[in-house]
Amino acid sequence: MTFEELEHTADVLVRVRAASINELFADAARALFSVMYGPCRDAGIVQRLTVEAGDPESLLHDFLSELLFIADVENVVLCRFELDVGEGSLSAVMHGEPFDPAKHAGGTIIKGISYSGLRIVKDDETYGVDVLFDV
């Protein structure tokens, strides 16, 4: 995993680093599900999603918010993400397993994704972003 949880007084803050923008978005999604549900395995659940937004930060915010909605409404835990992030849009094929209270109930409930401090940066070799999960 290429994310780490950082200290935060009230919410959950994760720092994500990746070699590409596709990996950055995928690792941010994995961080979201890891905080909420812990370990997950690919057990045949497949979801497809397309998101559009005006800038990369809004695209990441809207993508993660859609994942929260899908997890809540469809009772799934997603763990593998195949993404194609383009200019102002992304398409995703996501894999996971059905929610199992005995296995997945020990995580942190995330109510939303914050725009606070959400800024995607790129240096010579990596992309990075800090994402604040509202709990």
From TrEMBL:
<dbReference type="InterPro" id="IPR036820">
    <property type="entry name" value="Archease_dom_sf"/>
</dbReference>
<dbReference type="InterPro" id="IPR002804">
    <property type="entry name" value="Archease"/>
</dbReference>
<dbReference type="Pfam" id="PF01951">
    <property type="entry name" value="Archease"/>
</dbReference>
<dbReference type="GO" id="GO:0046872">
    <property type="term" value="F:metal ion binding"/>
</dbReference>
<dbReference type="GO" id="GO:0008033">
    <property type="term" value="P:tRNA processing"/>
</dbReference>
<keyword id="KW-0819">tRNA processing</keyword>
<protein>
    <recommendedName>
        <fullName>Archease domain-containing protein</fullName>
    </recommendedName>
</protein>
<keyword id="KW-0479">Metal-binding</keyword>
<comment type="similarity">
    <text>Belongs to the archease family.</text>
</comment>
<dbReference type="InterPro" id="IPR023572">
    <property type="entry name" value="Archease_dom"/>
</dbReference>
<keyword id="KW-0106">Calcium</keyword>
<feature type="domain" description="Archease">
    <location>
        <begin position="3"/>
        <end position="135"/>
    </location>
</feature>
